[in-house]
Amino acid sequence: AGQAGANGVYPIEPGTRTLSAMLAQSGGVTVDPAVAIVRVTRGGQTGKIWLQDLYENPSLDIALRPGDQIVIEEDSRSLMALGATGAQNVIPFDSATMSALEAIATVGGLSTYSADPKGVFVLRDESEAIAKAVLGRNDLTGDQLLEAAKTGRIWLNLRQTNDHVPEYAALADEIFADKEAHVPGLRTFKRDLGMLISSANAQVFYHLDVPLVSLWQIRGQKKVWVYPVADPYVGDLALEKIVLRETAEQFAFDPEWDKGAQEVDLTPGKMVTWRQNAPHRIENGPMLNVSISIEFMTPPALMRANVIYANGVLRRRLGANPRIQEGFGPTALGKLAVARGAKALGLQTPHVRHLPVTFGLDASRPGVLIEPPRP
């Protein structure tokens, strides 16, 4: 079944007793053999193998049994190239393996003028077992994580510290009290105060956030580029995909857009707040950086997020071409009802990234990372 040359039920005969022989009998495969996966189900258990491995390793050519189900699939894996590359694209795998160099070559290499050859990063989610195998260890202390930030090129993002550490909760209260004192009528909620510890010369790639954001620099120096909330920097379709959680917050970037950006140099003590949904990117200076990231909502910001959500639903369900309304007018309130109804009915299925829990913390053992319980 699947991408076989001729799907159907075939008898096991002297000439078709093995997997490869049965594949030949069914007409081979209709996809590129380099990305063809053979899946065999027997007795409720399923195994899979790359088609090329099957033919290159005769020992893997299993004998078939009555009731075996064979499905041919095309490899659906892909990767995303972002930043200072020749193009920002989603790249399908064209073979069982692809190196970082091959991926870069596929999108035209690195940008001649804006790319840092030492700043090529591979970002991906891995299971706990694979991550530990790569690191070659199964424990890390807080001191070791800080040392990794000092000597490597990583970001430690400690989210919602105000929900777990009393001192940070008090700091959050002070920050938002000051904001509300300086902006008459301002009301904030859904507050998230995070601690960012990042390496020298580390970068945050071009992206945007759904809530409002402030960034307060504590240690080191960094530069922030903030871009307009308008085409070509970000269009309505890109906003809808992010709010509907159909895609990640990172998206395609053109270095030419720097001409329209506002550049902010952050030094200790400075704080910057940008417009909701404004695309931005960040580059650290040549030293360890410590910042406080502050995310929050206001009634107008929450309304805007719901309007964008409703626009996405209307575009996908009805083929409409809606615009974003600011404020609390009748159209915006109607879209608020659409958004809440769509969420209640589950009309849009978000593509949620399930990040594994890889360690725990114990207040009685500061500086020690604890192994999570096994499922």
Task: Give a description of the structure.
The model has no long low-confidence stretch (mean pLDDT about 85). The relative contact order is 0.10. The strands form 4 sheets. This protein has a 5-stranded antiparallel beta sheet with strand order 6-7-14-9-12. About 25% of the residues lie in helices and about 20% in strands. It is globular. Helix 7 (about 235-245) crosses helix 8 and helix 8 (about 300-320) crosses helix 9. It has helices at about 20-25, 50-55, 100-105, 130-135, 140-150, 165-180, 235-245, 300-320, 330-345; strands at about 35-40, 45-50, 70-75, 80, 90, 155-160, 190-200, 205, 210-220, 220-225, 260-265, 270-275, 280-285, 290-295. With about 375 residues, it is α+β, with helices and mostly antiparallel strands. It is built from 9 helices and 14 strands.
Can you summarize the main beta sheet? 5 strands, antiparallel
Tell me the β content.
Answer: 15-25%
Kindly report how far apart the N and C termini lie. Answer: 34 Å
Topology, number of strands: 14
Query: What does the radius of gyration come to?
Result: 26 Å
Mean pLDDT: 86
Strand order of the largest sheet: 6-7-14-9-12
Shape designation: globular
Q: What low-confidence regions span 5 or more consecutive residues with pLDDT below 50?
A: none
Structural class: alpha+beta
Percent of residues in helices: 25-40%
Q: State the helix count.
A: 9
